[in-house]
Structures are given as structure tokens and as C-alpha cells.
Amino acid sequence: PAYERLLPVIGVRSSMGSLSTPPAELVDFAPEVVIASPGFSPTHPLVRWTLESGIPLWGDIELAWRVRDKVVRPGGAPADWVLITGTNGKTTTTGLAATMMVAGGLRAVPCGNIGTPILDAVRDPSGFDVLVVELSSHQLWYLSLQSSPEPVSPHAAVCLNLADDHLEWHGSFEAYRDAKAQVYNHTRVACVYNKADLATREMVEEADVIEGARAIGFDLGVPGPSDLGVVDGIVVDRAFLVERRTSALELTTIDELRELGLAAPHVVANILAASALARSLDVPPEAIATALREFRLDPHRMEIVATVAGVTWVDDSKATNPHAAASSLAAYPGSIWIVGGLLKGVDITTLVSTRGRLAKAAIVIGDQRDAVRAAFERHAPDVPLHEVIADETGDVMAQVVDLAIGLVAEGDVVLLAPAAASFDQFASYADRGEKFAAAVRQRVGRGEHGDTDADPSAPAGA
């Protein structure tokens, strides 16, 4: 690989091989600091050795923060940071917030656990006004270790929601929750939280913030002062204006969002969170409206692949946990649900008992089918259950689509919302979604929809 040829040129020694124990070269080197990829879990032998040896352990986020002043804005200051986490909606909200900020005249970039690595963003030669940083729970766990006298201190931060995920990495829901809560520490201006998710408010209340930082709530209801919400179909800001006790600023309307394919409730919640972050940086409402007209959801997020003979095929492969899949099933009740994969230590029974029982049928994929099947047998026994086992070619999605074709009737929706990770049978959630879409187009045809802009909250075929 190219990096192997580069390392000697820049004077870096490398050690290849198993990391089941700390390499002798590392122990002999006696490092003053260890910088780890966030993929290394707290129980990894190398991580445990570092901590037990009393050596500072950094992740990529802390390293980026410590070198942020190497490239500055024309005025001489490094970029402001805006931090975004949550079990679901991080990538959409990060993209929305960055798009809004750019529309408002700021030089902003989405980075971190999305697209551009943060270490690339901090060394961009022209400098940014704002880094919009998506953070995983893994990255936040590493931030919990920081002992710098100048810790990461964002302009604004949000935790969108909290539900079971990555429990095999963190060891428990409590540890996962504590990692997510790190996002608010040392926030200077706005701690944005989800009023519909009490856990996020509690995180804000417990956070060690800079004096003067405000708590800004959002949900789909009527907002109070210092909140963003929805009034009579109008999305409004009652947080970032002088007369917030008696007035509100219109940002957009639900009708406008419906025309843009952005009216699903969980997407509106993401828009509210992103708007709060943008407004904390004085982005005007007009710029937010402009950004929404330009924004497109990423692939594999409730993407309509085809509508043929009145049957709609939807790719929400990004629904890699039950919380995300619940939003998909709420948008498409009564669908034929494609579910399963690697559950990551998460219990799927609540999802099956609340949303899954309304499915017309379920098609189960993945290596952990037994757990999914047991959940249906116990909590949704009336839902017809079908299993797909990978054949010698491994063409899972071809079998899934062929099976679904035999189950559908006009007006039905076939929904890929696995509620699980993909790595048991696919290279990634994107690979899973692409293989589903390819199988649909090959076996069903492209149909009436060739775009990804249809409103997922609309009735099937609309």
C-alpha cells in the first residue's frame, strides 16, 4: 500500500501484525502519547495496556483539536466547531447544518464520522469558518479520556436521540449513554437537545459547559421560548431572536418540506436540530429555506428505488439499529419488511412488538435470524415470516426480491429497513442497499420513480 512506502520517507517506524498483545517495538519505544483509531474498543489489549501504563490516549478528534490552530481563518482564528451525535440522524443533520451554514455565507464543511476526515479538514490551506463534526459513540468515548487544560470546546452541540446501539463495543447501555453525553461538555453557546427524548435533556443538565451556554430544545410540537418547533404547519425558531417570548421566526413549512421529500417526522426533527445549530451562528432564516431547497437525502435513507404496478420498493439500508428502523416502519405501516443482519448486542423484541406486528409480512436475512424469528414468534405471531439463507453465490437480495414479488399486491410497500448492521453478508450498509436496488431493477424494473426525492411520509404509490 502507498502508506507503507510513505512512512519511511517521513521517518515513521511501522509495526505490522497481530495486536492481540502490545508489540514489543511499542513497549520499548515508551511513547509519551498513543493515538488510536476509534475502531479500537475499550477492552482491546492495546487500549488497556495504554491506560494501565498511564500513557495519554487520544482519538482522532482530540488530535485534530490540538492542532486546529495550524491553519486559521483570514482573521487569524481557527474554525469554530459544531458537534453532532445521536443514535440516528447524525449524517443527515450534519449535512443539513453544513448546507445551511454555507447558504448563510459561512465556509463550512461536514467532517468527522462522515466523508471528510477531521484531520483533513483542520489542515485545509484556506481555513474554514466552521467544522460541522459528526461524532460516533466510539469517538466520544475517546474524548472522555482527554485531560488537556484546553479540552474540545464546541460553539454548539447536539445529541439527536438515544437508543440501544453498539452495546457489544461499549459493554452496556449506560457506557454507551455516557459516551454520547460527552458531546455537550465545554460547549460555549448552544446545547441543542431533543425535547421528545428525555435522555438528551438530562445530558445537557449534567454537562460541564462554559458559562453563558444556553439549552435549546426542539421537537415537532409547539415551541416555547428558547425552542424550535412546529406551529400550524410552520417550522419556527423561538430561540434565536430578541423577542422570543412573544414572537417566532418562520424557517419553512411542512407543505414545502413535503414537496422536497423532507416531510417524514424524523427528517423534520433533523431539520429542526440543524436549524438550531445554524441559527446559533446567526445564519438567517432565508438562508435556511434556501439550503432546504438545495438539500438531498443521502442514498439508502428511505430512498424509493422503484414504483411498479402500484408497488413501492424502498431502500433504508442505513437503518442499522431498531431505533432507525422504527422511523421507517412508522412512515410505511403495513409494509413487507426486510429485516435482519448483525444485531450488535441489541434486543429487537421491542421493535417487533410495537412496529413489526403491523407489517404485512417479514423477510428475515442475516446470520442472526434465530433472534429475529424468535421475536416474531413471541410478539408478532400473526405476521407471515419468511427466511432467506444465502446460497452458494451469496446473492441474498436476488432471493429477497423474488420472494417479495410473490407476496405483494397493488398498493404495497417493500421496505428494506434491517435494524441491524450489514457486515455478516455485505461489505457495508451501502453495499446492502445497492444490491437490493440492483435486484429490484433487474427483477422488477425501474418503474415510475428514478429519483430519491419522493416523500416517504406519503401513501404508497403517491
Number of domains: 3
Distance between the termini: 49 Å
How many beta-strand segments?
17
Extract low-pLDDT stretches: 447-462
Approximately what portion of the residues adopt beta-strand conformation? Answer: 15-25%
Strand order of the largest sheet: 4-5-3-6-7-8-9-10-11
Which of globular, elongated, flat, extended, rod-shaped describes the shape?
globular
Number of helices: 18
Would you identify the CATH architecture of the largest domain? 3-Layer(aba) Sandwich
Q: Which sheet architecture does the biggest sheet show?
A: 9 strands, mixed
Specify the CATH class of the largest domain. Answer: Alpha Beta
CATH superfamily of the largest domain: Mur-like, catalytic domain
Please identify the structural class as seen in this structure: alpha/beta
**What helical percentage do the residues reach?**
25-40%
Could you say what the CATH topology of the largest domain is called?
A: UDP-N-acetylmuramoyl-L-alanine:D-glutamate ligase
CA radius of gyration: 23 Å
Give a description of the structure.
Residues 447-462 have low confidence and may be disordered. Strand 7, helix 10 and strand 8 form a beta-alpha-beta unit. The protein has a nine-stranded mixed sheet with strand order 4-5-3-6-7-8-9-10-11, sandwiched between helices. Strands 12-13-17-14-15-16 form a six-stranded mixed sheet, sandwiched between helices. A two-stranded parallel ribbon has the order 1-2. The chain is built from 18 helices and 17 strands. It has helices spanning 2-9, 24-29, 45-52, 60-66, 90-103, 118-121, 137-143, 167-170, 173-181, 198-206, 254-259, 265-279, 285-294, 322-331, 349-354, 369-379, 396-405, 429-443; strands at 34-35, 57-58, 80-85, 108-112, 130-134, 156-159, 190-194, 214-218, 227-231, 234-237, 249-253, 303-308, 311-315, 336-339, 361-364, 385-387, 413-416. The protein is of the alpha/beta class. It has three domains: 2-58, no CATH class; 70-294, Mur-like, catalytic domain (UDP-N-acetylmuramoyl-L-alanine:D-glutamate ligase), CATH 3.40.1190; 303-442, Protein-Tyrosine Phosphatase, Chain A (Alpha-Beta Complex), CATH 3.90.190. Helix 5 crosses helix 12, helix 7 packs across helix 9 (173-181) and helix 17 (396-405) packs across helix 18 (429-443). Helices cover 34% and strands 16% of the residues.
